[in-house]
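DM from R.C. (forwarded with permission)

"hey, sorry to bug you on a friday — could you get me a structure for this? deadline for the figure draft is monday and I only need the backbone to look sensible"
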Amino acid sequence: APGQGATFEVDLPGSPDPSGAARSPMEPAQVRIGRILLVDDEPLIGRAVARVLSPPHEVVLAESGPDALERIARGDRAFDLVLCDLMMPGMSGMDLHEHLRSLAPELSRRVIFLTGGAANPEARAFLERAQRPIVEKPFDPPALRRAVSEILAA
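My reply, with the result:
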């Protein structure tokens, strides 16, 4: 009744079998938590990717290649991987990757490109040369999580 409140009782299932029953590869106990630098000029994409990956990962957003490079140049290199839009105004993901090769070579080997389709010949040639994983936009959340897990596990 109004003004008298309510009482709720919630019954939750017990913990899983402690004997070590098989787990799917995407359960939190199997996922290595990482710090991810996400570089994308589209804020909606950035927020969507962050929602898919956190938790368990920490996602740091950079809205441009120069913003990402500035963070890294200031010494913020504690990223486990970089998710980067391939085609952005000003500095493309291809350009950012080339800068990373000299500024933070170890990080340049842990880049996953997000792309709506590498239609131009330059982008196709770059992706073939770079041999980095690609996640197509619009992305499939399980495929994105899988790509991130593979890089973190390597």
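R.C.: lifesaver. The first strand starts at residue 35 and ends at 39.
me: no worries. DSSP finds six helices and five strands in the chain.
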